[in-house]
Amino acid sequence: MKELFKGSLTVPNLLTVIRIILIPVFAVLFYNGYFIWAVFVLFLSGLSDFLDGKIARRFNQVSELGKILDPVADKLTQITIAVMLFFEFRAVGSDVMKAFSWVFLFFLFKEGVMVVGGAVMLSKGIRPGAAEILGKIATFVFYGSMLLIIAFGPDIGAFVRNGKNKALILPDWAVMALVIISALLTFFALLGYIPETLRQFKEKAKEKSLQK
């Protein structure tokens, strides 16, 4: 535990903690109909995610705690957004969007796999690795796509609700394309964890066999 918290009082970790705090703030604002404020909070969350990594690498403030907190913040944020949008899409008038709402459950499935896999690794004494470049790209695209949908999506967009700014409304096909692209990147990012995970399990098994 001492090693985990060693050098943890850094600006990147503070930004990550703020990002975690913003998750329930976003959920409450979105649930209560303060959609423009919800978009603003989600934008701040995405900005903090971008900045904490940049600052950590630029000023050599990478910490063991940060390696754990950052993916936890990402997972909690993505789970919250996926759940909120799933129910929001189920409530709209478009049958196409209602049917498409089930795609958001894929993001929940992916995070569930990551949580279970991480728990198994920790139980074996293996620390899950940090996100690779594809994982970072997938997270960036997820934030950008969900921001656009929550801001300008048909029937649900914060800036186009009640017939406002009709020219800015994203067509159904654009919404579906954004979600599908994000889901595909998320899927390939998940596959990207497999080789390193298998390598660590093999090394752990080799160490145990040598100890016998």
Short précis:
The protein has helices at residues 2-5, 11-31, 35-58, 64-91, 95-100, 104-123, 133-152, 172-211.
CATH superfamily heading = CDP-alcohol phosphotransferase transmembrane (TM) domain
Instruction: Write down the CATH topology.
Output: Four Helix Bundle (Hemerythrin (Met), subunit A)
- Name of the CATH architecture: Up-down Bundle
* Domain unit count: 1
What is the CATH class name? Mainly Alpha
| Number of extended strands | 0
N- and C-termini, Cα separation: 28 Å
Low-confidence stretches: none
| Largest β sheet strand count, sense and barrel closure | none
As a percent range, the share of strand residues is: under 5%
Mean pLDDT across every amino acid position: 84
Total helical segments: 8
* Approximate helicity band: over 70%
Give the topology string: H per helix, E per strand. HHHHHHHH
Question: What is this structure's SSE topology?
Answer:
Elements: H1 2-5, H2 11-31, H3 35-58, H4 64-91, H5 95-100, H6 104-123, H7 133-152, H8 172-211
Structure, described:
The protein is mostly helical. It has a single domain (2-211), classed as Four Helix Bundle (Hemerythrin (Met), subunit A) (Up-down Bundle), CATH 1.20.120. Helix content is 77%, strand content 0%. It contains eight helices and no strands. It has helices at 2-5, 11-31, 35-58, 64-91, 95-100, 104-123, 133-152, 172-211. Helix 3 (35-58) runs antiparallel to helix 7 (133-152), helix 6 (104-123) runs parallel beside helix 8 and helix 7 runs antiparallel to helix 8 (172-211). The model has no long low-confidence stretch (mean pLDDT 84).
